[in-house]
Amino acid sequence: MKYEFIRENAEIFPVEKMCRIFQIHKSSFFRWRKRTPTSKSVRKAHIIKEIIRIYHWSQCRYGSPRIAKELDSIGIKVSRKFVGQIMKENHLRSIAKSKYKKTTNPPPNNRSAENRLEQIFKASRRNEIWVSDITYIETDEGWIYLTVVIDLFDRKVIGWSISETMRAKDTSITSLTKALLNRPLQNNQELLFHSDQGKQYACHEFIALLATNKITQSMSRKGNCYDNAIAESFFKTLKVELVYQNKYKTKDKAEKSITDYIENFYNTCRRHSALGNLTIEEFQNQQPIK
Question: Which residue among 87, 198, 208, 258 sits deepest, i.e. has the most Cβ atoms within 10 Å of its Cβ?
Fold first, then answer.
């Protein structure tokens, strides 16, 4: 009790004088203070533990901005700079993104749609703008192809397909069909569907599916990866955070891994910088659905 009183009043009274009054040696007090944790140091230790926990929970995917936001969601308010400092001291580095290679190419003499999106990657409601793309995943059994459809409103992957071929019926058509089932168009909503000029999006069957659902088509300019930046950014994230961290022996294992990532992490728990580092669910709860 004496030591605690001296520590709590050290900024008001001289330590030496208080030690003399309580008849204790000043050196004894300083030894006690050095080995006794303060409430501040206990709190810091707790925060460090939480930073390390969140980092490993995210499977090394989160950097300081997302960890700081995750801490805030559980009532721990610290700066991004502080989190970055703790990560550096504990040798915690988030997985860095690498360059992404284009998968689909337009066929010769391809009829492409007008670029109506024009790199405006904002939507004010659900089912206003969907973007789509295709990428490849390597396994020991050969390649598989992942096609996704993303709603720009909340960046949710609302439809996807994993196939062993690049045929439209297995890629673009399947993923769009699933997206329409998962997020149906209501009250004659006007929807813009954007993709690159790949033949999977330019074939008659896919165009007919768009027309049947009264969906307006938009396509990137030839060779311009920035026109479909959101879909390509998703693939960068997927490959860096998941695919490059695994070596898939079978196509089945790769499919299960990717499905789990989309359904149980990306669409549910992952914090998205485009949404102010909110999860998709948190964003949906804050935004009125129009």
Answer: 198
